Batch of 3 targets.
Target 1
Amino acid sequence: MSAITPSSNTVTTLTTWTILDLLQWTQKYFAEKGIDTARLDAECLLAFVLGVDRMRLYIDYEKPVGEAERATLRELVRRRGTDRVPVAQIIGSKEFWSLDLRVTADVLTPRPDTETLVSAALGLLPDDRAPARILEIGTGSGAVALALASERPRAQVVASDVSAPALAVARENAERCGLLDRVELRQGALFEPVAGQRFDLVVSNPPYLAEAERPSLAPELAHEPDGALFAGPQGLEVLEPLVRQAPDALVPGGGLVVECDPRQADRVAGWCREAGLLSVTKHRDLAGRDRVVAARGGG
Ligand SMILES: C[S@@+](CC[C@H](N)C(=O)[O-])C[C@H]1O[C@@H](n2cnc3c(N)ncnc32)[C@H](O)[C@@H]1O
């Protein structure tokens, strides 16, 4: 790997590369490529290559890194910087709600904002000893279903998805988290896999991007499944039927919690009221935008 001096673009070769050298070089390269999380991504990739956690990099700043590891890092840096593959897909995992989850190109990488969905859902199931029945529609990696199952140890969770490859990843994650005995995976659209059943909580982070937004999206999204992102011309083709059909799948007083684009939140709240749901509330994400709508079924 070479160091490029910022002023002249002259390439100089270091004989010894320390962890600090590699972090600084990679951070600068990613920043030049327009990656907002340049330092974090550099740390994640180097820690992955060295098989250590990120904290160890700081302890071992001055440690030299051998050529074989640098060659591996170079390839990962190229995939991140040039191909714009998300870090989670490169290293094959992502932490969500303190769970270490496997991530592939078949599933949406769980987002920190989706922890708002989990918090709001837990708020509607305050008794952590209750034997609740939970349905997650569109489980992807299983992140939300597994977070809820881990927080509510007596709950039984059904996690559904239209995508069979996504369900395979969710199953692997359920096993990895030791929760497969309480998380049942089913394939199908919306409420079809649980027809006639009722739940204490229905939760979903459905696809909600409009097709027209595609050209303006971050290049990383091209590596995630289309079916996890886009939902028709306005992004509402999954959200709207999901909210309108939810009352038939809730026990009296059961909760519905859905994630949406902040620009959709008022409309989603309106559908909840039109569907006869009560106590409709909006919840903000880490950036303070309305990201989640929650409601309760009537008595
Ligand atoms: C935005 S991703 C959410 C993944 C995961 N729950 C999360 O929050 O990280 C949406 C998921 O919904 C699935 N999906 C799309 N349309 C669906 C439908 N009509 N019924 C059920 N699942 C659907 C996609 O395959 C995808 O896995």
Target 2
Amino acid sequence: MSYLPPFPSAHREAALAALAEFLPRAGRDYAEQRNHDLGPSDRTNVSLLSPWIRLRQLTEWETVAAVLREHDAKSAGKFIDEVCWRTYWKGWLQQRPSMWTDYRADVARLQAEQAGSEAVQAAMTGATGIDCFDAWARELVETGYLHNHARMWVASIWIHTLALPWELGADWFLRHLLDGDPASNTLSWRWVAGLHTAGKTYLATRSNIRRYTGERFEVTVDLAKTPVELERSPPPPVQPLQEWPAASAGGRTGILLTDEDVSAAAWLAAEAAPAAVAGFFPAEAYEELGTANHVVRFRREAMRSALGKSADSGLFESVDRLADWMKTVRIEVLLVAEPPVGLWTELMPRIRELCGQLDVQLCLKRHGWDDLLWPHATHGFFRFKKAIPRAMARLGEW
Ligand SMILES: Cc1cc2nc3c(=O)[nH]c(=O)nc-3n(C[C@H](O)[C@H](O)[C@H](O)COP(=O)(O)OP(=O)(O)OC[C@H]3O[C@@H](n4cnc5c(N)ncnc54)[C@H](O)[C@@H]3O)c2cc1C
């Protein structure tokens, strides 16, 4: 199935082909050139891997291992750091889950109050009159991708020049980005707004945009020179990560894949040989969020591809269908890769309840990569970064 350019398909084969194609450029070339947004027709200076990495159609550990087979650790350092930013954001949110639920409540309130406002509509349809912003707004909706620097500029202009609520901008991104990820997206928007790190706000400037876009834009409108001052309440206290008990040995085991980690069938099988594998696609949660069709299609396709040929019978979108499957294959233990805070936050309690009703032991597991790195995501990235070499030393195990 072909997809929106530049993403040919959600399948693992497409992800592996994109990784192989990018590998020669993942060293010094990436470190030196990645900040340039050369436009949709030239993305050779970045990897474009995020839609697959987001779903773990390509895992962080295999991506980093592949890069280290072609480049020494120093040359690949910048790329590895970027891959680990995702882990950092996920670990950070996992230890402050209320930040996600508060943000979703704020989005709902703001949508009721302002989503129909002319200024919000003009921004989301690329009709602000700010040439670069309008081009990126259209690119986001048409391709499901924006370069990292463009995401920073768009978020900055949205918040500081157009003075729109950051939550509505974050929601707009989350609904359209193929790699839309609750942690990376919400916390990056908060960072641009000056809410993540005290005293740090990101302000887009005309000269920076012109320089890093190869002067593709005029930027004739004045951009904000001072940031909007948002009230920064202290982040919720760190909530320790859950420790998951081992499954009781001997029960008939089923693995349930989620779209948060489609690689999990492989690594969960090391816990207990499964009698059956199925997937659950949270179609209802995506619909509630108002997720764009291209995102939903990409993710469903990624799950089908991860499940293989039997996918049609084993990919469920309702808790009732999942219940039927668990009864039919007589599951006693259900193994699931712990979903990060986000769309699964509300769904997981329903699956737990179902397991309780069917007398099935629900057993959550965290991959070693997350288990090692997430506990270090308590402060800033630079403190977290010190733990990365420990993960690099264990790549051979995963
Ligand atoms: C306001 C804003 C919103 C964002 N929203 C998302 C989002 O919803 N989902 C998402 O995956 N990324 C998000 N990012 C991070 C980043 O922009 C994208 O991951 C990156 O642009 C993806 O393109 P790429 O694969 O070509 O990246 P590359 O530059 O090739 O980076 C390689 C990989 O590293 C990871 N990565 C790189 N930069 C970051 C970062 N800053 N944070 C987390 N991971 C990173 C991605 O997995 C990416 O595939 C956001 C950044 C900003 C500023």
Target 3
Amino acid sequence: MLALQKIEPAFGLVLRDVPPPVPGPGEVVIEVGATGVCGTDLHIYEWTPGYEAMASRMPVTIGHELAGTVAAVGPGVTGLAEGISVTARPSVVCGRCPACVAGNSDACAARTGIGITRNGGFARYVAVPAENCVSVPSNLDPEVAALTEPMTVSAEAVDTGEVRAGDRVLVLGPGSIGQGIALFAREAGAAEVVVVGRDDQFRLDRLRAMGFPDVIDLGERTLPEALASYLARGRFDVVIEATGVPAVVQQGLDVLRKRGVLVVCGIHPRPASVDLTRLVREHQQIRGSYRAPLSTWLRVVDFLTRHTELARQMITHRVALGDALAGFELARQKAASKLIVFPQA
Ligand SMILES: [Zn+2]
Ligand SMILES: [Zn+2]
């Protein structure tokens, strides 16, 4: 079968022919219906710092935003059968380290990642631990079900910011994670959701299509200049950063109210510089947000089932696996928002 693989710690990805997987004990093989391309995949493609742990696992098939149906069940698997529609939580815990044995698998010291340090979804079939599967309704379109993983990152960021009814929320970064943050902030009852990007008209337009009127392209302006009409009514209650640009952290703090919360969920290639004296005097908090618990996955599947056509607005490009690299180039140039790859096409 064809698989999109990282074969060396350098720029690039290659499409290779590999044998299809056989499910090991506790595993299932998923026939992949759709797999999303995310910022992480682009970082792996470009080989930006932060993914060095992959080097010892190469060649490895990437792709962690996958959905499909169970095609084969390995020994010892209960509760899953062939034909069930699923998505998969990418983070695989070892079950053997002291933390796992103590029941605190969140602190697993030997975690692997589907599509990062073990084979992922840019292939016709992928073997994953059965316990990583999350069932989805059989009538949920796989391309929308493939949005589950990035949407859990967005939902976790909104939860971490403790967005409440009536809050004024600023989202920095209009990519798929930022789009999901806007959706969940609105779901949480935010009175105002403002989303900012820079030279990112294409992705900001997706937000307009999802019913967010307050989307702003900074262009050459600074954040306070571009947000002047909003700041005239006060600074924001919650600011959620999804850009991965270190300088944005201080800019976000500057427009956050006293005692407000700034959530950082971008992956930053370098440390950020923060004016801590100002932070102290403003009594502000910076909180990191990353992978979401299982309960959030169930909530997101429910959201996608109820709002399928709204969520589908996030998808702008669809390609067969054989054309995935051309799609990656579009995404790198921000000319695509969410790109979905179809391994069976
Ligand atoms: Zn992702
Ligand atoms: Zn462990």
